[in-house]
Amino acid sequence: MLFAKRELKTFLLILIAAGFGLLSFLLTDNHANKKSFKVEVPKYNLSANVVVTPSPMAETVIRSPDGKKTLIIKKQESISLTSYSFYTSDVQTAEKIPIFIQTKKSNQSISAPFNTWSPDDNNLFLIEETSKGKDYLVFHASGKPFTDDSEYINITELFKQKLPEYVLEDVTGWAAPDLLIVNTKTSEGVGRSFWFEITSLSFIQLENYFK
Question: What CATH number does residue 101 fall under?
Answer without folding.
Answer: 2.130.10.10
